[in-house]
């Protein structure tokens, strides 16, 4: 999805990045479920969470930038 957004035309980019953000939120949710049912250990969960946090900030910044560009003036 991120690759598709990177190559999408500007008019389609916002919708694709919104979908990417939703899918990423689902990934974080299911990772937390895995940790809660003890399918992954706390150390591995912590390592993955840190990386996902950084990726989430990048996606959030991308989304904010696209929203700002598409606002009517």
Please, could you describe this protein's structure?
The chain has 73 residues and is an all-alpha fold. It is 85% helix and 0% strand. The chain contains three helices and no strands. It has helices at 2-7, 10-36, 42-70. Helix 2 (10-36) runs antiparallel to helix 3. It is elongated.
Q: How would you describe this structure in keywords?
A:
73 residues, mainly alpha, 85% helix, elongated
Question: Nutshell version of this structure?
Answer:
The protein has 73 residues and is mostly helical. The protein has helices at residues 2-7, 10-36, 42-70.
Low-pLDDT runs: none
Residues in helices, as a percent range: over 70%
Q: Major sheet: size, sense and barrel closure?
A: none
Taken as a percent bin, the fraction of beta residues is: under 5%
Terminal residue distance: 29 Å
- Specify the number of helices: 3
Shape: elongated
Question: How many strand units?
Answer: 0
Compute the CA-based radius of gyration. 15 Å
Fold blueprint:
Layout: H1 2-7, H2 10-36, H3 42-70
